[in-house]
Specification:
single chain; alpha+beta; Phage tail protein beta-alpha-beta fold; three-stranded antiparallel β-sheet; three-stranded mixed β-sheet; 8 helices; elongated
């Protein structure tokens, strides 16, 4: 196991401050019912998750790591941000990641804590997610969460486009019989919903389509996609950019 050397593993600086004092306290409510308690608990959880996300995006760090272990990296990040961080080594091992074999080499100046996490885990199968008031470092598969179903209408991408010829403006004798007009040409960018589904698999969700519970099915002019929330965002951007 690599040894931490003080000159080579230094937390150089920490910029930015948390704005915890700016949050407004919720107004007092009538005697809570069970449903109200549930709503309050959900709201508090969302607020805590947003607070951690905002802190990751606003807190800026200048650091130098040389052959740091995952535990050493997390310890310094925890001290620098004040965020509760849990390393889910059990799930990482289950997904084929050896957390004790990870070494982190970084020398960066004035980057956000979120970017620091991405840089530290680049090239390894490690990701992170926020749950309640804890930042969880885990495998990328676990960090993506559970697949959810979303339906995409692709009718506008499959609608045939007819090219109607312009009217003939020539002057003919009164007894002239014009020929039958040609059939309008029909063009269609995408042949079927199946073709669009294959494009979605090819250009989005890299490395995820073989995961359990992840799939794309087709019904008429709709794509039924069950995948991770982050991949759904990729799919929406991809479909929006396709020429119709």
């Amino acid at each position: 196991m690599p040894r931490l050397l003080p000159p080579a593993f230094v937390l150089i600086g920490l910029l930015g401050t948390a704005n915890a004092g700016d949050e407004k306290k919720p107004a007092a409510k009538p005697a809570p019912t069970r449903s109200a308690d549930t709503g309050n608990a959900t709201g508090d959880r969302v607020d805590r998750e947003k607070s951690i996300a905002n802190l990751l995006l606003s807190r800026r760090l200048t650091v130098k790591f040389e052959k740091a272990t995952l535990d050493q990296f997390v310890a310094h990040l925890r001290a620098a941000t004040g965020i509760n961080i849990f390393v889910h080594k059990g799930r990482m091992a289950k997904d084929g990641v050896d957390p004790d074999a990870i070494q982190i080499d970084l020398d960066v100046h004035d980057v956000t804590a979120a970017d620091l996490l991405k840089l530290a885990f680049a090239g390894v199968d490690v990701g992170f997610r926020i749950e309640k008031n804890v930042l969880i470092v885990t495998s990328k598969k676990d960090a993506r969460g559970k697949p959810v179903l979303r339906i995409y209408s692709v009718a506008h991408l499959l609608m045939p486009i007819r090219d109607f010829p312009a009217p003939d403006m020539n002057v003919y004798p009164s007894n002239y019989e014009p020929p039958e007009p040609p059939e309008p040409e029909v063009t269609q960018t995408y042949e079927s919903s199946e073709q669009l589904a294959e494009l979605v698999r090819t250009f989005t969700g890299e490395g995820t389509w073989e995961d359990e519970g992840v799939q794309v099915t087709v019904f008429r002019r709709h794509l039924f996609v069950r995948t991770y929330p982050s991949v759904h965002a990729e799919i929406q951007r991809f479909l929006d950019e396709l020429p119709g």
